[in-house]
Specification:
It is a single chain. By secondary structure, this protein is mainly beta. It has three domains: 2-90, DNA Polymerase III, subunit A, domain 2 (DNA Polymerase III, Chain A, domain 2, Roll), CATH 3.10.150; 105-194; 212-341, DNA Polymerase III, Chain A, domain 2 (Roll), CATH 3.10.150.10. The protein is built from six helices and 25 strands. The chain has helices at residues 57-62, 111-120, 162-166, 218-228, 278-287, 337-341; strands at 2-4, 14-21, 23-29, 34-40, 46-56, 68-74, 77-82, 85-90, 105-106, 131-133, 137-141, 145-150, 158-160, 174-177, 181-186, 189-194, 212-215, 234-240, 243-249, 259-263, 266-267, 272-277, 293-296, 299-304, 307-312. The strands form four sheets. It has a nine-stranded antiparallel beta sheet with strand order 13-10-11-12-25-24-23-17-21, covered by helices on one side. The radius of gyration is 26 Å and the shape is elongated. The chain starts with a strand and ends with a helix. The relative contact order is 0.10.
């Protein structure tokens, strides 16, 4: 039987392949998350019944390098021929279990919103590792960074693993959940994953109110923060005399300095001085477009209607590894983290 190498994509630790008539069926999975695909065989109707075989990820991905393959089973071996090349791969036993889709309900949670949430999640902490979906909102949070979108999701509280989204292509999918398993389907494909059992409810009504308002050219702010990122991971964020001053905070072992200022269009803040992670500020600004920045003594927020993104200041409490005492940083001084800690 003939098959094209283009079918061997998105391989996982376990891969079941069946060639029959004019279609190719592939079920790839890692024990929990899986992809089930049924695709047309570009070589048309194949004679000789049905061929089934199983491949580990390395062998599965190898076959993607070939345009055309002739496949034959000989004992426990899978024999391939492509042009003048011939090779064998060992077949092995594989237990197939497709998840139960009974009672699955379609969700109103766009994939692009879930991807924004994952960008704010923390894969190292299971309680913050995925997308938190509530009845009226979708949230991604690492604790120090949070993104939230208010919308009717048509589901109760669930916690979606980030690995589920990594297996989706850019096409439009219909997203459904049984409350225990989540499915994404499009023509000829189903991606599935069990949901996290741990459900974080404290962020369901997260809606911070900050009194400080700052209006500046955000494009200029992004450009200056990108420049600072070449010198340091942290920036001292100071509002004074109708200007936003930006000072790179030297991390231990790095001896570079960058200072800049941006003219303020409008603000109700007289003085402000705090330290933020540069990459966190860029993430927050990129996630939500807003005319004004909201600020309080401990956080920076972009908010536009039903969408918000927040990052917290760097402090002893939320950055134990750095131990920066943000409020003691003096403008114009370029100090190491160790010097600040010893003040």
């Amino acid at each position: 039987m003939k098959i094209s190498g283009k079918h061997f994509k998105r391989g996982m630790p376990n891969n079941y392949i069946a060639i029959e008539k004019d279609y190719v069926l592939i079920h790839s999975f890692d024990g929990t998350t899986g992809i089930y695909r049924m695709e047309q065989n570009e070589f048309g109707l194949q004679e000789g019944g049905k061929i089934e075989f199983n491949l580990v990820a390395k062998d599965f991905n190898l076959l993607s390098k070939f345009n055309e393959l002739d496949v034959e089973l000989v004992g426990d071996s899978i024999c391939f021929k492509s042009g003048v090349s011939k090779f064998k791969i060992q077949n092995y036993e594989l237990s197939l279990n497709r998840p139960d889709t009974t009672g699955a309900v379609e969700m109103n949670v766009p994939i692009d919103i879930m991807n924004k949430c994952i960008a704010f999640a923390d894969a190292t902490r299971k309680e913050c590792a995925g997308v938190l979906v509530y009845e009226n909102s979708v949230v991604g949070s690492s604790g120090s960074n949070t993104y939230k979108k208010v919308l009717k999701t048509n589901t109760q509280t669930i916690h979606i693993p980030g690995s589920f989204l990594k297996n989706l292509e850019k096409d439009n999918y219909s997203i459904k959940s049984t409350g225990k398993v989540i499915f994404a389907s499009k023509q000829g494909e189903i991606v599935y994953s069990p949901l996290y059992e741990q459900k974080i409810t404290m962020l369901e009504n997260y809606d911070p109110k900050f009194e400080g308002i700052l209006s500046i050219d955000c494009n200029e702010l992004i450009a200056q923060l990108q420049n600072i990122s070449l010198f340091s991971n942290h920036v001292c964020f100071e509002i004074k005399n109708d200007k936003l001053n930006l000072l790179s905070l030297v991390d231990e072992g790095i001896h570079k300095e960058f200072t800049s200022s941006i003219k303020i269009v409008k603000t109700n803040i007289q003085e402000y001085k705090q330290v933020f992670r540069v990459d966190h500020l860029l993430k927050v600004i990129d996630a939500v477009s807003a005319k004004e920045i909201s600020i309080d003594k401990n956080a920076f927020m972009m908010k536009n209607g039903d969408e918000l993104s927040v990052t917290m200041v760097v402090s002893n409490q939320n950055s134990e590894d750095l131990k920066i005492k943000a409020v003691t940083v003096k403008p114009g001084e370029n100090k190491t983290v160790e010097e600040i800690e010893n003040e």
